[in-house]
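Run CYTH domain-containing protein through structure prediction, thanks.
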Amino acid sequence: MYADITIKAFCANPAETESILHELQADFHGLDVQTDVYYHTEHGRLKHRQGNIENRLIHYNRLYLPTEKSFKTEVLLYLKNPSVATVSDVCAGLQKVAEIRKLRKLYFLDNVKFHLDKVEGLGHLIEIEAIDLDGSFGVDYLKQQCEYFKDQLQIADKDLVRESYIDLFN
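Sure, done. The structure for CYTH domain-containing protein is below.
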């Protein structure tokens, strides 16, 4: 069963964070120029991510875990590289709520994905996303990984963000 735990924070020094990721031997997967288009839904979030690396149509619920200061994501729909027709079919009649533009540097270290983002109107942020595609790690292990990398990347509790990027604009 798929599981995802995410920590998000403002990043005061992206160059230093990137240097630490290099020291940890994280694999750089490129710079993605992304636009996330959000649509109104009754439950959760529906977004169409358009980028030169990541193209996704995602419907998800994200639950904040206050004791861990992280998020647990429940994915309801996940389509890689959806066709124009598919996006049109899924989003037909839904109101566009927001459009978020960002530059995203993508790094991976085993099952952990790191996003170094420069979000238009917000500044620099980092996301640590521990992913379990098949249930072999378990949520507790994902939480431990997020906490470990939070410490390694010197992320202070005061910089943690509870909200989605879209919520930070409201």
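The mean pLDDT is 93.
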